[in-house]
């Protein structure tokens, strides 16, 4: 039986296998430090479409097809598809998967969506409701800027605390049986709101949610940061990463040795002018699928704590002057035996 550990953490009775992972990114992401690890790099971030939103749907459609191919499966093998994005009504996802005849559960966790998809998918499989689940998350820099900040043609100067939304899609196939890295636990986060209202400083808004998740995970499991080869948050960037280190130190946890952030890894802020780093649903999704998944497959990483983070604002909440609530979801992944795709 599945074992609930405390209020927020679940340990699976049998680990859920990540059978395959795939990542498709935009040109700028492909030019960054992780470029060699991504499956596909689009030369045209418009994907031949006439809008950024349609382009994002193309990233979704192409990457979903790719991960199914890598898993050696077809849509008929999949019981559920769980995914989401940043756009209104998750339209990037909707139009990207609408031709897949698979039962669909749309998710919105902002930039924590990949962690939500992996968590819920693993629960569905562990509960006996599915043998295969397709999960993923996407975002597009231009579409997100238009919706949440300013249209790009205005040329608004961004502060150094700002992050750049990653263009791309990351997807995984979760399985009941087989070879590959294994999800052994999930810790589901709570909404944390520290009163931040600056949409150009997402790291400060989301860092407290990551800290709350980390504290819950360590307290409920009895583990410490040193029990993991790597702990990775989703898109806090340089500002949020430093806040997590400082806040966790006040709680008695040393995060200085094995903690990093996908938003720091995906871009070179000195040569790519990305300020505090990367963000967006695709930031954690493509970084996990492209960079960390192979390291779990090879055994270079034996156990990681993956924590996608999300700022739960909307275009309306920003205009109304509301604060920016945030959430984080933790997924414990351990290196599985055998080959990976």
TrEMBL record:
MF GO annotations: acyltransferase activity
Organism superkingdom: Bacteria
InterPro entries: SpoVAD (IPR010894), SpoVAD_sf (IPR038369), Thiolase-like (IPR016039)
Protein name per Swiss-Prot or TrEMBL: Stage V sporulation protein AD
Source organism: Anaerotignum lactatifermentans
């Amino acid at each position: 039986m599945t074992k609930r550990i405390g209020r927020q953490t679940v340990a699976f009775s049998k680990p859920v296998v990540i059978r395959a992972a795939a990542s498709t990114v935009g040109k700028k992401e492909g030019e960054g430090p992780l470029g060699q690890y991504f499956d596909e790099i689009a030369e045209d971030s418009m994907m031949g479409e006439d809008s950024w939103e349609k382009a994002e749907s193309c990233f979704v459609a192409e990457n979903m097809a790719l991960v199914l191919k890598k898993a050696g499966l077809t849509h008929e093998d999949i019981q559920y598809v769980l995914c989401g994005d940043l756009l209104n009504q998750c339209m990037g996802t909707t139009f990207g998967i609408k031709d897949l005849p698979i039962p669909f559960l749309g998710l919105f966790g902002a930039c924590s969506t990949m962690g939500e998809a992996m968590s819920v998918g693993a629960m569905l499989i562990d509960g006996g409701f599915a043998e295969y689940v397709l999960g993923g998350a996407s975002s597009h820099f231009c579409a997100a800027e238009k919706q949440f900040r300013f249209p790009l043609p205005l040329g608004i100067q961004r502060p150094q605390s700002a992050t750049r939304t990653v263009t791309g899609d990351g997807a995984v196939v979760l399985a009941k049986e087989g070879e590959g890295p294994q999800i052994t636990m999930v810790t589901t986060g709570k909404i944390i709101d520290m009163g931040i209202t600056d949409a150009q400083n997402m790291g400060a808004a989301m860092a407290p949610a990551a800290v709350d998740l980390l504290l819950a995970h360590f307290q409920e499991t009895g583990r410490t940061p040193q029990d993991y080869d790597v702990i990775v948050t989703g898109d806090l960037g340089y500002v949020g990463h430093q806040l997590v280190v400082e806040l966790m130190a006040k709680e008695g946890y040393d995060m200085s040795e094995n903690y990093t952030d996908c938003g720091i890894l995906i871009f070179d802020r000195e040569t790519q002018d990305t300020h505090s780093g990367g963000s967006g649903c695709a930031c954690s999704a493509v970084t996990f699928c492209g960079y960390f998944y192979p390291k779990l497959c090879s055994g270079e990483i034996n156990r990681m704590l993956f924590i996608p983070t999300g700022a739960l604002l909307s275009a309306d909440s920003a205009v109304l002057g509301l604060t920016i609530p945030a959430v984080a979801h933790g997924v414990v992944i351990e290196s599985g035996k055998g080959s990976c795709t």
